[in-house]
Design brief:
TIM Barrel, alpha/beta, 9 strands, about 25% helix
């Protein structure tokens, strides 16, 4: 199966539980939420950037490119707009796939049954509670990426943490660097609510992709 890829690169994960872990990142073109809602989004997912490794590839080409990395991050945009089953069918059991989703797309059955999936849900307007319930970690942007309604609140974050989820607050950052004001807001919140954790986008501090 062929996929239109915005970019692909190898770097350290900058967010969440696996921060600091080397990963092969595959960013798909397109997002069913879109930048009209996420109007402060810092990610280029609209087109294929050939100079950043983007283009059209099948799943075997992408897996061959990532072969030395046990952790592969499928991101976007919205990766669950794609049929990802071929990745799980063709890869070895030593691979863990990290899917970063908006929580707005139902999790397909083949992913629900996979032991090789790490699901990170960063809820956007229209998020589904059943998708958040499947998450291995939840990442709430503070303040949200847009100004409209439907963004998760601190009450949502606390509720999900109460269900036993690992819930991160992550500052809404600038394109290439951390927003220090928003970082302070998040730090104050996690000190007020110690059942939450802070994710700072380590890659922006290190100055890597």
């Amino acid at each position: 199966m062929n996929y239109l890829i915005s970019e692909r690169f190898k770097s350290v994960q900058g967010e969440g539980v696996f921060a600091g872990t080397p990963m092969a990142f595959i960013r798909f073109v397109g997002c069913s939420v879109g930048k009209k809602i996420c109007n402060a989004c810092d990610t280029d997912f609209e087109v294929a950037h050939n100079w950043r490794g983007g283009g059209t590839f099948d799943n075997l080409e992408l897996l061959a490119w990532a072969q030395d990395f046990p952790h592969i991050c499928l991101t976007g945009g919205e990766p669950l707009n794609q049929d990802l089953e071929p990745f799980f069918e063709e890869s070895g059991i030593e691979k863990t796939f990290h899917i970063e989703t908006s929580g707005t797309v139902k999790i397909p059955k083949y992913l629900q049954e996979s032991a090789r999936l790490w699901l990170c849900v960063s809820p956007k307007p229209g998020f589904r509670e059943d998708v958040v319930a499947e998450a291995d970690e939840v990442k709430v942007i503070a303040p949200g990426l847009g100004s409209g309604e439907g963004w998760p609140t601190i009450s949502d974050a606390l509720r999900w943490a109460g269900y036993g989820k690992t819930v991160f607050l992550q500052p809404r950052n600038l394109r290439h660097e951390v927003d220090k004001n928003n970082l302070r807001i998040v730090q104050d919140l996690v000190l007020q609510y110690p059942q939450l954790r802070m994710s700072v986008q380590l890659h922006k501090i290190l100055g890597v992709q």
